[in-house]
Amino acid sequence: MQDLKQYIEDNKDRFLEELFGLIRIPSISSKPEHKDDMYKCAEQWKQLLLDGGADKAVIMETEGNPVVYGEKILDPSYQTVLVYAHYDVQPAEPLELWKSPPFEPEVRDGKIYARGADDDKGQGFMHTKAFEYLVKTNQLKCNVKFLIEGEEEVGSPSLPKFCEDNKELLKSDVILVSDTGMIAPDVPTITTGLRGLCFWEVEVTGPNRDLHSGLFGGAVANPINVLAKMITQMVDENGSITVPGFYDDVIKVSDDERAMMAKAPFSEEEYKKALDVEELAGEKGYSTNERTGIRPSFDICGIWGGYTGEGAKTVLPSEAYAKISSRLVPDQDHLKIADLFSKHFESIAPKSVKVKVKHLHGGQAYGCPIDLPAYQAAEKACEEVYGARPVPVRSGGSIPIISTFEQILGVKSVLMGFGLEADAIHSPNENFPLEQFFNGINTIPYFYKYFSEMEK
User: Which of 121, 154, 185, 215 is the most exposed place for a label (fewest CB within 10 A)?
Assistant: First the structure.
């Protein structure tokens, strides 16, 4: 693959313009008003796969947003790689915090700034260009299938049934994913674990209407006050989650594995500086990396109620709401945790209010053994480009469908991502360094090389 770097150099401007075309489509899966954008983005992905050398690329309906499926089958006896990515993105709000419009990609200081630049349009797009290179230079030695979905950012609710209905179509030897990150630009990283997820919305209702806070304040329970108090009861002074039974199924990580994790390059001072905080917080007895990799968490993602406009309005609100997430670890079952939290939260509510808990979505945690042949192929690919053996890490993030793939399709996934912590995914000013983008395109073809050389 001596010509790979030259191929990238010769085509880098085209690569960026094609990626920017994807990014300009506001494919926000959580907002129904963007339904047409989901189809528009799917059409663009379909064309990218065909232009890249796929023999077949189609848009397939699901109960939600469509899936883009593509394939190039060289020989049924060859190894088959299923590439997974998602074309939907997070909402861009708060818009006023963006330095440039979120759906008008811009390169500044060597980085692509836009919603989806990293998660996951940029990272998913790298695979189409790596595939294009291998096809055009006749160096592809295994079968490749693509599964590009449009609901990852809302928990992939339609994909499990799609996988059940299309098991034969999606049959493969490994699933290759770039939707994770690296410790640092010069520290190649392969993610060996993902936390699971539970996500709820809670509603606390007090009086049957908003009340004058002077006439009723102090006599009627304020739902926002009650909600805030209930939330503070969810985590104790040691950072432990107080829901009864929450930790029952958490796997205890061995001292040896914790020692291996501790060898990963990490500076707590630099971490705090990058986040502009003076002190870190979390579960007592665990390091920062352990808190985000091997331990579950509990967070309030949003809270609202009452009057939040300009100026003052002396109102005692009728309702208060919060969106809550919990990251899970093996072997916590997200449905069990969803039920435990719902029952506990409702049980601690005072009689002065009514509480409803709605479970929005969730997914299981995932683990990939480092002795998996496909993992070793990814390891060699990273060494080829970065000149160093990649560090195996457990990510604090969740990609719920990854564990579902294993359950339904019976296939392991290799998580070879190129994002960085500083990329601000899900936040204003999301970005993706050009160096990481092009290194990804440079690395992925080597995965195919080494994977195709392994015995089936």
Answer: 215
Query: Which two tokens mark 334?
Result: 């997200």
How is residue 86 annotated by DSSP? E
Residue 119 lies in a domain: yes
Tell whether 56 and 148 lie within a shared domain: yes
Summarize pLDDT for 205-243 with one digit per residue, the tens.
999 999 999 999 999 999 999 999 999 999 999 999 999
Backbone CA torsion sign across 260, 265, 268, 271: negative
pTM: 0.80
- Does residue 288 lie in a domain region? no
- Judgement on whether residues 314 and 394 belong to the same structural domain of the protein: no
Please determine, for residue 456, whether its predicted confidence score (pLDDT) is greater than 70. Answer: no
CA nearest to 416, candidates 387, 398, 434, 392: 392
Residues 430 and 386 in one domain: yes
Q: What distance in Å separates the CA atoms of residue 53 and residue 124, rounded to the nearest whole number?
A: 16
The answer to whether residues 202 and 229 touch, using CB atoms and an 8 Å cutoff, is: no
DSSP string for residues in 260-312: HHTTS---HHHHHHHHT-S-----TT--HHHHHHTS-EEEEEEEEES--SSS-
**Lowest-pLDDT range of 112-126, 160-174, 258-272, 434-448:** 258-272
Expressed as residue numbers, the domain containing 311 is: 196-247+296-361
Of the candidates 365, 380, 387, the one whose C-alpha atom is nearest the C-alpha of residue 192 is 365
**Residue 256 forms part of a structural domain:** no
Q: Is residue 89 part of a domain?
A: yes
CATH number, domain with residue 328: 3.30.70.360
pLDDT in tens, 376-433: 999 999 999 999 999 888 888 878 799 999 999 999 999 999 999 999 999 999 999 9
Would you list the DSSP string of 151-214? -GGGT-TTHHHHHHHTTTTT--SEEEE--SB-SBTTB-EEEEEE-EEEEEEEEEE-SSS-EEHH
Gap between the Cα atoms of 163 and 171, Å rounded: 10
Q: Which CATH number goes with the domain that contains 48?
A: 3.40.630.10
Domain finish residue from 361, 383, 413: 361
The backbone torsions φ and ψ at residue 107, rounded to the nearest 5 degrees and listed phi first, read: -100, 120
Residues 311-336: pLDDT tens digits? 999 999 999 999 999 999 988 999 99
